[in-house]
Amino acid sequence: MSAPTLWRRLAAELLGSAFLAALVIGSGIAAQRLSPGDTGLELLENAAATAAGLFAIILMFGPVSGAHFNPAVSFADAALGGISWRDAAAYLPAQVAGCATGAVTANLMFDLSAVSVSVKQRASGAHALSEVIATAGLLLVIFALVRTGRAATAPAAVGAYIGAAYWFTSSTSFANPAITIGRMFSDTFAGIAPSSAPVFIAAQVGGGIAGVLIIRFLYPALTPAQAAQVIVPHETGNGSRPGRDQRVASDVDAHVHRVRTAAVLLADDDQRSHGGFEAERTT
Hints:
Elements: H1 6-34, H2 39-65, H3 71-79, H4 85-109, H5 125-147, H6 154-168, H7 177-182, H8 197-218, H9 224-227, H10 242-282
């Protein structure tokens, strides 16, 4: 099976990012309308929909591009050797355009103006710290799973982490520069004012750098082949599928070991038989 071309991977990143933004913003609008005045319940509804939906869209687009939908993930993957810096740079505009498109789509689905610039101010020291921690934690979840051979569980784990981070961070865990830009285009529950976005993006970049450093410290044996499985195993640019290729290599090694063991046993049996024959001749 040939690997998806860069254009196919960019299309998957754009569409996945659009679904992500529509999911976050649309569920926020629905929560506001279904539970007016109850912020806690609105956040619960928004977080639950985001966690479940993120699980699904990673499964949808992961086999094509890896389902990054997030420049922090793409550039961390490049820093760890999973994709090229060229591909990470190409993913960036696709992810931003996708998130902006998803925001506009969410507005239209709820009969709002296509673009309504948010006025929700979120910039504060506490919010910035939250974004550093949320972004670093997201990267740790993803790369810890690929390093330990559990990449198949990443869709559920990433969805669960983001759903939980809605609650344990004061910023509600954007953890994604592209979605931060997209959420500026919706003056609704999930929006962010353009004046607050630079603070969030700077914090996310800092969290991404911190995340890569922590990953290198905790998992020094992380290989580029393992990093290439982020977020889920997919066909890579050289036509290989890391998870599959590693399994094939392991099977080949096991077969070679069995053949060698059998050869040694046959040689021992032959030697014993030859020794017995010589003993009979002597007597």
